[in-house]
Amino acid sequence: MNDRKLAEYTLEKLEKLGADAAAVSVSHSSTDELNVDGGEFSLMRTLFDTGVSLSVIKNGAKGTASINQTSKEDIDAACAAAIASAEHGKPDEAERIAPFEGKEKFTQGVLVPDVAALYDRIEEFLRDTREQFPKIIMEQFIADYRHESGIYMNTNGTEFELEEGCYGLSSMFSAHEGEAAGSFNGADAAFTSLDRAFMDMASHRRLFRESSDSLYPKPVDGKFEGTLIASPGLLASFMYTVLGNFCSNGTIIDGTSPWLSMLGRQVASKGFTLTSRPLDPAVVCGERFAGGFKSENMTYIEDGVLKGFMLSDYGARKTGFERAKNLSGSFFVEPGTTPLSEIIAGVEHGIIVNRFSGGEPAQNGDFSGVAKNSFLVEHGKIVGAVSETMINGSFLDLMKNVRAISSDTESSGGGVMPWAAFNGVTISGK
Question: What is the torsion angle, in degrees rounded to the nearest 10, for the CA atoms of residue 311, residue 312, residue 314 and residue 320?
Answer without folding.
Answer: 30
